[in-house]
Amino acid sequence: MQLTIDLTGRDVLVTGNEQSARQAVRRYQKAGANVYRLSSPEGMPGDGQLPERPFLVAVVDDGGAGWLPLVERCRDAGVPVAFEPAPGAEGHVTLVGGGPGALDLLTVGAVDALRDADVVFYDRLAPYQELADLTSAELVDVGKQPGLHKVTQRDIEKLMVDAALLGKNVVRLKGGDPYVFGRGGEEVAACVAAGVPVRVISGVTSAISVPAAAGIPVTHREVSHMFTVVSGHAPLTEKEHTHLAGLGGTIVVLMGIGTLPQLAAGLRRAGMRPDMPMAVVERGYRPGQRTTIADLGTIETAATGCSNPAVLVIGEVVRVAEANRNHAEASAELSRLAASLLEA
């Protein structure tokens, strides 16, 4: 996490060896401090100067055991001491699931990985607007848009691997979960082939969270006991339509606006009834979130003007959300009526 304190013009002494202290130095510099470095308890900074009385001393856990006397001297002198964690092992890649784009749906593991990163390669569906508050790392936009891949997948993999081989801690921040239509498997394979250590931090997938944002449960007792997640980037085959129509339960389609007409027509041809309820949830957890509800027979007309990012939900669970919403609206109306009667 980035520092929220304003240290503009303040002298801050950061201790610890150069590699261990590099991220702490960036954080304090970003907070406006005049940062001085002390690499070892016996050493001096490169310019041979230290602040006479620093505003703060940041002690980085670099594995050394000789910093305790300095800490004690600071305490005796009334100089505040902050203890900073050292970054993890150098030269590795962490694939991080950023969830549906809401900052509060990042996992603790995701926040920790971002804090320890030297460079972050991020997608447009990840919570990139708030990254400056989460990390002091270099931020590189490699996001793809429909029909516009300014950085190809192979180039993204090369950027990750090259940065890790230079000794940097790399975070590949992806929307949702890296292994749910996120090409995370390909990126892990690229790291393994290059001999780069890699790990994956799962994220909250939009397949579940975005319907939930619209009040739609993907499963519901006595309504649906299964759900199927489908990519909407390319039209399905007739065989796939038949398979989906025969499964029952809930169908969730990610990024499916472009193939919505083919999907709806294909499911109808496969025998799914035209009055099956369907919802399009646009921009889940983002400004302008909107839900359009229709049925399989009319969704193409109802969804005119809808755009990605969007999640499609097909199944009786959509009616659950409608019923809950109607109940909530009715309760709110009764409350308003009761309040007006009391005022009268």
How would you describe this protein?
The protein is of the alpha/beta class and 344 residues long. The chain folds into 3 domains: 74 residues, 3-Layer(aba) Sandwich (Rossmann fold); 113 residues, Tetrapyrrole methylase, N-terminal domain (Cobalt-precorrin-4 Transmethylase, domain 1), CATH 3.40.1010; 117 residues, Methyltransferase, Cobalt-precorrin-4 Transmethylase, Domain 2 (2-Layer Sandwich), CATH 3.30.950.10. Helices cover 33% and strands 20% of the residues. The chain is built from 10 helices and 14 strands. Strand 3, helix 2 and strand 4 form a beta-alpha-beta unit. Helix 4 crosses helix 5. It is elongated and about 80 Å long. It starts with 10 loop residues before the first strand and ends with a helix. The mean pLDDT is 89.
Rounded radius of gyration (Å): 26 Å
Per DSSP E runs of 2 or more residues, the count of β-strands stands at 14
Roughly how many Å apart are the termini? 53 Å
**Helix percentage:** 25-40%
Q: Give the biggest sheet.
A: 5 strands, parallel
What is the CATH topology assignment of the largest domain? Methyltransferase, Cobalt-precorrin-4 Transmethylase, Domain 2
Judging by the overall fold, what is the CATH architecture of the largest domain?
A: 2-Layer Sandwich
Given as residue ranges, the uncertain stretches (5+ residues, pLDDT < 50) are none
Q: For the largest beta sheet, what order do the strands appear in spatially? A: 7-6-8-5-9
Q: Provide the CATH top-level class of the largest domain.
A: Alpha Beta
Count of helical segments?
10
Structural class: alpha/beta
Give the topology string: H per helix, E per strand: EHEEHEEHEEHEHEHEHEHEEHEH
From the spread of the alpha carbons, the general shape counts as: elongated
Count of separate structural domains: 3
Output the CATH homologous superfamily of the largest domain. Answer: Tetrapyrrole methylase, C-terminal domain
